[in-house]
Design goal:
With 208 residues, this protein is α/β, with parallel strands linked by helices. Helix content is 20%, strand content 39%. The chain has a single domain (4-207), classed as 2,3-Dihydroxybiphenyl 1,2-Dioxygenase, domain 1 (Roll), CATH 3.10.180. It is globular and about 40 Å long. The chain starts with a strand and ends in an 8-residue tail after the last strand.
Length: 208
Amino acid sequence: MAAIEGVTLQVPDPKAADVFYANAFELGPRVAVCASDEPTTGFRGFTMSLVVSQPSTVDSLIGTALEAGATTLKPAKKGFWGYGGVVQAPDGTIWKVATSTKKDIGPFTRQVDDIVLLLGVANVKASKQFYVDHGLAVAKSFGSKYVEFEAPASAVKLALYGRRAAAKDAGVSPEGSGSHRIVIGSDAASFTDPDGFAWEAARVQDRL
């Protein structure tokens, strides 16, 4: 089965981005950065999600992200699905931090249980089939609305959403053009998906 080993965010200032992510989220090798000045405007077609165990963890991670220079797109609050909020890093990457619980269930922790790369795609069914053909196994599927793929422990999970739905969930306009500014590292062969997202057959550490 193909699996995402990590993602590399393409940023204008890698040193500044490294400092931001170390202070904001402490995600280790699953999220790396590299220099890029490729033009991009508006929504880049993806968001990164941090899934955690309880609201206090959401508040802590969002708090340190804001202290490190992020801006708020959606303040953390309770919803039908749980509790969470959305911020945008100084490099432009959109981060959602969320939990399925509405009350703390244990001692305070900053542990991130899952990292999810959500791609906003033009055709969910077509992209789902593309990724199945490239070795990914479906974990959850809701027709043409949403797809989540299986992932080994400690890997980055992949999910698909319609582009407009993904942008609405992030609190931004769906309009955008230019580079996605992300490279997905996996144990599969290198390829580019129907929406232009690039995959590389190399570990994140090897691309730094």
